[in-house]
Design goal:
heterotrimer, A alpha/beta, B alpha/beta, C mainly alpha, B: alpha/beta, Rossmann fold, 2 domains, 6-stranded mixed β-sheet, 9 helices, 10 strands, C: mainly alpha
């Protein structure tokens, strides 16, 4: 009896070991083709330079060119400053009595700022905003939102399409009804510029990655070992930013070596990931976290717990906690941000392009901002068109 | 047998209970006397278990009265029944498998220690409960191999014995037994009857539901027969034969409804 | 140890007797979790010997990361013991981290923790009251509550991280330590100790188990089963709140998604620890060890340098193996 009950348990060890071994091996193989797969995943075509730097095997010599942001279909980027309307065009739109709907993917400081930019621009254009929705990153919810909003018959819809594939179906009713569609960052699969949609507006994602790399390199004096935590999901925005950061470090800063790489899917797991990274690489000088609210918070907590006050942290997007650490002289040395408000304005103006039948650039980008302790107030105003949160202002004194 | 001198412990008068369209109890009256065993007989669905559940606070009757020691009581919950000294052994036994024998004997009657704070928190006095369990079971001559075994490790007869022991321990006045010896072997059933006798001898009023006429004649003083929710007979067991009882149950005849 | 004993079997007589007794009473199930813990620890210690798995810092990390899981697991143990389940614990922890962050800033550290616990107990009360009075399975009630609470959390600070700058709060609930022992470890031990004592030595704990094992029988014995079920759900939600406080202390922020994804981890920890998913059997100590197993898995798989997708697969496989083991034992008894 005793042997009988003892034996199977030890036998269980065999598959357990086998499974772990298989997984470990599979992962080892994976590493080599991981980067190319990731680059290809977001339906996309990152800049050729980005693709050229898939592994940690030293910087690719032949293309010493910074990564550039390209549209999801390889479109060349046009600066948002070139998207403008003449007075006559404005008057024409104002006379039209048009309506618009804003279909967001989530809510938060970023979306709020984009939304505010769009609303302000629409107000100037005499376009009434009849609906605003938040799909909470749920593609099915977004499809419902489109159907719901179509009942109000808007002339313009501006949105971030969740998932290029699902988005294609979700926005079909709007396309069929001839609504002027302007997309943020991404475009549904198979949509034709100028026919199905007016244009895409996005952050200059590559510029954000480059900015983050520059901020980290400045803090490290161009030398050191760096840990790279990237967003491990096929998500165009973060993939482009992450890859640009990595590529720019490799291209432009030979003194800085990326010694640890770890993907992150659940923002809440960042602390565990960063702790493990510090365990394996006790000599890290800096860490890159893919965005602030969640991932950078976790990294910050891990750094504090490890007493690693000299490890520099850079990340993307302004958020209270990292901003506070930045101004208090903690681990955060810089934050790359975007002009979210400007994004919304540009989207609204492109919507007007559509109404006027004026050809809009397929892919417009708003510039990136590098925020440090010295320019944080301006950074907030430029990015989110608000002052920093009270806690941050208090800390500045 | 014991005659009218024995005082009444519990009286039920005109008790009614229906479930939707079904009248499970239709103006049923009966009385239980201290130191006497009353059999509650009837076919399946006659209303026996419903009557027990009305007295033990599981069901609220639709009408009628329950008097305990002459005072009218509305028994709104099992807890109230227990606090009036009415203990019940249900068909399902109501023992808790993962708890051990001691815990089952004292469930919801736990001793606490640590003074008032301990009582408020419910800090269990395991030692005291264990030693009292030994006494309770010893008094009733119930033998359980280990008091610290979970109920799930006990045999059917042992589980039944614990359930009856619990009722005996707390039912100072009235004990209701719903088929306590069903599904037991001959020897175990005999032990249950012994338990019932010792309850009776210590002055407890016992109500016994059973289908086994041998048991009725062996331990019961009175027998009340229910049929389709109505009381159809109430007799002194000494006055009738087993066949008479069966006839009452099947409705072949009705009896003394004094 | 030779001769007769060896011939009789590979184990000494005393061990065989012990095993036989265990099998007769509750099976080996309660010990599966310890075996799993030792097994996984040993495995990682070998595979990751050069990757710092065995360093003091890393072991401490595992302990700290297990703390919120463990605290939630203790609460969940009581919910499951009463044959209820609480799916809202992840979002309750998240909301509590925000409430704590908010209250700490305004009223100090005691108020921060107290406010969070009050919110948790309140949510648990609502969960319990609806479950019991409206007679909806707690599975559905708490599923709905999960959505409501995470919605409220999302609205509270507009998805931003709310920094906590109260040093006492951070020391007591997060980064602090007593001597070399992290305060998070101390909270884990406290949660386990309190939970174990409540389950085994308080009337309420025994009643929770009774209600979970056989609600009808418990009711027939006069136990107020409604009250027990409501308080069990309050306990799980309040424990989740406290886990939220610990998460807030560890990360020095309140955030709408702190701990939100821990629900399944917690359920796995509790079940591996020997608690029945459907009531009537519970082990607090098992839940604590189960939590450590989950944290260890998480840590080890990251240290192995696995990609996220592979981590998920490996973790899933190991959890299924562990649960299968504990279920198998259960069937045999």
């Amino acid at each position: 009896m005793t042997t009988k009950c003892k034996k199977p348990k030890w036998l269980r060890l065999v598959p357990l070991l086998a499974v772990l071994a298989v997984v470990a091996v599979a992962c080892g193989e994976d590493d080599d083709d991981a980067a190319p797969t990731t680059t290809a995943a977001p339906a996309t075509t990152a800049a050729p330079t980005t693709t050229a730097a898939p592994t940690t095997t030293a910087a690719p010599e032949p293309v010493p060119e910074p990564p550039r942001t390209q549209g999801p279909g390889g479109e060349e980027a046009v600066p948002s400053s070139e998207v403008t309307l003449t007075d006559e065009e404005i008057a024409e739109v104002q006379a039209g009595g048009y309506t618009a709907a804003l279909l967001w993917h989530t809510s938060g400081a970023f979306t709020d700022a984009v939304s505010q930019g769009a609303r302000d621009a629409f107000a100037e254009l005499g376009v009434e905003v009849v609906a605003e929705t938040n799909a909470n990153f749920d593609a099915a919810q977004q499809a419902n939102d489109v159907e719901t909003v179509m009942a109000q018959d808007p002339d313009i819809i501006i949105s971030l399409a969740i998932g290029p594939d699902a988005g294609a179906e979700a926005f079909r009713p709007a396309v069929d009804a001839g609504v002027q569609l302007v997309f943020l960052s991404n475009v549904p699969q198979g949509y034709v510029h100028g026919q199905d949609y007016v244009g895409i507006v996005t952050d200059d994602l590559a510029a954000m990655g480059i900015t983050a790399a520059d901020l980290l390199a400045d803090a490290l004096g161009g030398e050191g070992e760096v840990g790279y935590i990237f967003h491990d999901a096929a998500y165009y925005v973060t993939n482009q930013r992450d890859q640009a950061f990595k590529a720019w470090i490799e291209i432009n800063y030979p003194g800085i070596e990326i010694v640890a790489e770890q993907g992150l899917a659940d923002p809440a797991a960042a602390e565990e990931i960063a702790s493990a990274m510090l365990t394996r690489n006790p000599d890290l000088d800096g860490i890159y976290a893919p965005w602030s609210a969640g991932p950078a918070d976790g990294v910050l907590a891990a750094l504090r717990a490890a007493g690693a006050s000299d490890v520099a942290l850079v990340t993307m997007d302004l958020d209270t906690n990292v901003s506070l650490d930045l101004v208090e002289g903690g681990n955060v040395v810089g934050i790359a941000a975007d002009e979210a408000y400007n994004l919304g304005r540009t989207m609204a103006i492109e919507g007007a392009y559509g109404l006027l039948g004026k050809p809009a650039p397929a892919f417009a980008v708003v510039p990136a901002i590098g925020v440090t302790a010295d320019n944080i107030v301006e950074g907030y105003r430029q990015s989110l068109v608000t002052d920093p949160p009270q806690e941050v202002l208090d800390a500045i004194g | 047998m014991t005659g009218p001198a024995s005082p009444v412990a519990l009286e039920v008068e005109g008790l009614c209970k229906s479930f939707r369209a079904v009248q499970a109890l239709d103006h049923v009256s009966l009385s239980l006397h201290y130191g006497r065993v009353t059999a509650l007989l009837g076919d399946n669905g006659a209303g026996k278990s419903t009557l027990v559940k009305c007295i033990s606070g599981v069901y609220a009757p639709d009408g009628g009265e329950v008097r305990v020691d002459g005072a009218v009581r509305v028994i709104g919950s099992p807890e109230m029944a227990r606090s009036l000294g009415i203990e019940t052994v249900h068909q399902t036994l109501a023992v808790i498998d993962p708890l051990d024998v001691v815990e089952n004997l004292f469930l919801n009657r736990e001793h606490t220690r640590g003074g008032r704070l301990g009582a408020w928190l419910g800090v269990l006095d395991k030692k005291r409960m264990r030693s009292e369990s030994g006494e309770i079971l010893g008094r009733l001559d119930i033998r359980i191999p280990s008091l610290r075994r979970p109920m799930s490790a006990l045999s059917g007869g042992q589980r039944q014995a614990v359930a009856i022991g619990r009722a005996a321990a707390w039912g100072q006045q009235i004990v209701l037994l719903d088929e306590p010896a069903a599904a037991l072997g001959v020897e175990q059933a005999a032990r249950v009857l012994d338990l019932i006798r010792s309850l009776r001898d210590s002055g407890v009023a016992v109500l016994l539901i059973t289908h086994n006429m041998d048991r009725v004649t062996e331990v019961c003083d009175r027998a009340v027969v229910l049929r389709q929710g109505r009381k159809t007979a109430e007799v002194d067991v000494a006055d009738v034969s087993k066949d008479d009882l069966v006839a009452y149950i099947t409705g072949a005849r009705t009896g003394d409804l004094s | 140890m030779t001769g007769d004993t060896a011939a009789a079997g590979p184990l000494p007589a005393a061990a065989r007797q012990w095993l036989a007794r265990r099998r007769r009473d509750a099976g080996l199930r309660p010990y599966v979790v310890y075996m799993a813990a030792v097994l996984i620890f040993g495995l990682f210690a070998v595979i990751l010997r050069d990757d710092g798995f065995l360093t003091a810092t890393n072991l401490l990390n595992i302990g700290r990361q297990a703390a919120p899981i463990a605290v939630m697991a203790v609460g969940m143990t009581f919910a499951l013991a009463s044959a209820e389940i609480d799916l809202s614990i992840g979002s309750v922890a998240a909301l509590s981290s925000l409430v704590a962050a908010e209250a700490v800033g305004d009223y100090g550290f005691v108020a921060g923790a107290a406010a969070a616990l009050a919110v948790g107990a309140g949510i648990g009360l609502i969960n319990g009251a609806i479950t019991v009075k409206v007679r909806i399975p707690s599975f559905l009630v708490t599923l709905g509550m999960l959505g409501i609470v995470s919605g409220i959390a999302r609205n509270m600070n507009n998805l931003q991280s709310l920094p906590i700058r109260n040093d006492t709060f951070l020391a007591v609930f997060g980064a602090g330590s007593v001597g070399p022992i992290s305060s998070l470890l101390i909270w884990t031990v406290v949660a386990g100790l309190v939970g174990h004592l409540v389950l085994h030595h308080l009337r309420w704990g025994r009643h929770v188990l009774s209600v979970g094992a056989d609600r009808g029988a418990a009711a027939a014995l006069g136990i107020n089963t409604d009250r027990i079920r409501i308080t069990a759900l309050m306990t799980s939600a309040a424990a989740a709140s406290f886990a939220g406080v610990l998460l807030a202390g560890r990360l020095a922020i309140g955030r709408h998604d702190l701990g939100e994804n821990l629900l399944l981890t917690v359920i796995a920890a509790v079940v591996i620890g020997g608690t029945n998913l459907f009531g009537g059997r519970a082990s607090v100590v098992g839940a604590i060890v189960g939590s450590v197993v989950m944290a260890m898995l998480n840590n080890g798989l990251i240290l192995m340098g696995l990609r996220v997708a592979d981590q998920l697969i490996a973790r899933g496989v190991i959890i299924i193996l562990a649960v299968a083991l504990s279920m198998r034992e259960q069937k045999e008894t």
